[in-house]
Amino acid sequence: MADDQRLLNIMPESKVDLQQNMESDEERMRKIINVLSYGIGDLYTVDVNTKEVTVYRQAGDARGISTGFKQHMSYEGLIETYISHNVYADDRNNMREFTVFKALCAALKKRKSITFHYRVMRENELHYYYLKCARVGEADSFDLIVFAFVLEDDDVFEREMRKYMEIDELTGLYNRQAFYRRAQKLLDDNPDDIFDIAISDVANFKLINSVYGEGIGDEVIKYLGKFFLENTENGICARYGGDVFVGFAKSSPDRQGEWLTSLIERAKINSPVPNIVLKCGVYRNVDRSLSISAMCDRALLAVKSVKHNYTMPYATYAGPVSQRHLLANTYESMFDSAILNEEFVVYYQPQYNSATEEIVGIEALVRWQMSDGKFVSPGEFIPIFEENGLIARLDEYVFTKVCKKIKNWMDKGVRIIPISVNLSRASAFQLTTAKRYKEIADEIGVSPKMIPLELTESASIDNQRINEFMNELKEAGFELYLDDFGSGVSSLSCFNRLPFDEIKLDKSIIDCIGDVGGEELLRHIIELAHFKEMRVVAEGVEKKEQLDFLKELDCDVIQGFYFSKPLPYEELIDCLKVEYSKTEK
Ligand code: C2E
Ligand code: MG
Ligand code: MG
Predict the structure, then answer these.
(1) DSSP letter at 579?
(2) Higher model confidence: residue 35 or residue 15?
(3) Most CB contacts within 10 A, which of 12, 76, 85, 473?
(4) Per CATH, is 3-166 categorized as 3.30.700?
């Protein structure tokens, strides 16, 4: 309150100006003052159309930094005088750039106020200031800007300055955003040159952190930053984030294959820890029509393909198809040890009765938590394991894990909710699958009824073997769910012909809610499924409107982020505890 009062109590350099402004438009003046922070020295306004500046002086201490200004100077005149008289030499150019009038107005269209931090040298000592500018009025119609030069404390200055200067604190290199801008500029300034982009990643960085501690981990990052900076020629390098660095430079025939291998070797020599494993991905002769971030993605894809391959220190991006091939080889070579080390982790997504909103089912969904801590979603590795047949082993692994969890619940006397498991087409084609799954369930001591099996539409495409397989599973006592219904072309035929107990409507159909044709289709599908005595589960339900509409249509079960994401086992248990406590009440 006292501050507001103090700020309102401004005194004019020119009494006439103040009178005009204060008396004719006091409300406006209040607005000006409100958008500025406390601790203002002098206060200026600039007319957007004429660029004429008016100076207001705060009562009392004006902090002595702006004496000597004339009134009604042009904006440029005032700023340049201020900068050349007050601002520390190193910060002058940045401040000039920041205060370009057109840029300032454009920035103020996006934000109500903006701030620039700078230093002032007085009596041989550096003082930290900021320039704060704000528009008076709405983004599309303001005609007045107000600004002030404000003293501030050093810590804030350091932090803000670094942000402005786009520098990564730990390494002193550009941060990622700054890199995108600088690299784009480099590209634009050199239209006839060929550029390469390279990304490096420390394959065992998580291990380094856990063995040596985060302090040493930071030392490694600092060391690498310095190393890459020293080895960058005709270009720039930056910290992309975490333990990942990126370099962008003019392509040079001397800096290809062997040079890169030796660079990676040299990086190890003076490293703070002896065993860093560096992996690089290079995207050569970048396509100029791509954004810098898309170029980085290509280099990252290349790194990924060798990240877990201990014989190859780097890879070159070779187009989307070959890139996938490389990744497939890598994943394949990692599969056995991933199973052995239990890197495949099962998550559980609860499903809710649409009328009572109680949990009535759970779907098991696999994730891959690699030894370096990286988390890979099934969308990335399942298609690869489907192609090379390894998926059948993964399915069995997940199935076994789920059987054991259910057995655990049985032993504890907990109410059992069925947990469904996804089965791939490859599993169907292994002749012993049904028998094997029954044996596993029997051995662990759970009823197959408790583990329904989900087959996708595409996995159940008309085929004699699929028919047999499904009959074998039914005979063994498993329930069968038709997954992703509506995402493919064969929907109606498998729906009609195969012995499914439940259909799961794909998210793409649920997303049609709101569209008249889509809603009509959904109504008919649900009616048809009910006519065939199948339960209907809606997948990918994210919004209340979708839930309400599905309730109206009598859709039986809801699965989707609206209620819950897939959860790690411990969180599922917490969720079930809450659920049980509700029903006990
Ligand atoms: P799915 O069987 O259709 O599983 C549902 C997918 O939808 C899951 O993706 C789940 O996280 C996601 N989802 C659920 N609710 C929502 C929502 O409200 N919004 C959105 N955007 N997504 C939602 P996830 O876990 O990434 O799995 C993808 C697919 O990978 C699965 O689709 C399934 O086909 C396959 N998959 C997962 N685990 C296994 C497995 O153990 N074996 C096999 N063969 N396939 C698996
Ligand atoms: Mg599924
Ligand atoms: Mg599905």
Answers:
(1) H
(2) 35
(3) 473
(4) no
